[in-house]
Amino acid sequence: MKVPDISRVGLRRIVMAGAVVVVLCAIAVPAVAGLTALAAEHQWLPWPSVWPAEHPLAPVVERVLEGNWRKQPEWKLPMLVNGLSKSPEDCSITAYCSECCDGGGRYTRWGSHVRRGICAADPRYWGPGSVVWIGPPVNEVCIVEDTGGAIKGPHRFDVCMEGAHEMCYRIGRSRTIYVPLHRVEPTSRWGDKPKGWQPPVWVRPPDEAS
Q1: What domains lie within the chain, and their CATH numbers?
Q2: What is the pTM of this model?
């Protein structure tokens, strides 16, 4: 059987393609290995059986666990870990704060104070207290506590940037990704946010479990 000749150009292309694969694997493997090691150390968290190395929440979870994660609200870390099993989706975002001319004032539809860490969404798809992680340039976990006349559709969010008014202009109308962490059933009656309310706490560290 005659083996076909491979030109220098063809051989160079094969070598370069192989190099690209090696580089991509070198990037992905440490990400998976680092998070896998943290999963073994924190087995009390609701880890999925597998998660893709390129999942946008992987570096977020890793960063939180490598920092002082006990300073985070007790509901946040389990929700982020559980979010590794959920697929990211495309969304359209804008931003607002109480300084914006059309910011809507100092209070949300849920009766809470306007502040960082919340967002407005379409109440036909998201109930008050739903939680989403929104990607760059926001990179934050946001609780749905507000609505707006221009916020239409399941993949449209208006993110509160209270205290960072310049970010509202910087974000403008952007396309990014989000991961739904906790969805509350839509309702037409929002009422007022219950005193002391927080998202559900699914699990606690073993030494804090009651």
Answers
A1: 8-85 (no CATH), 89-182 (2.40.40.10)
A2: 0.82
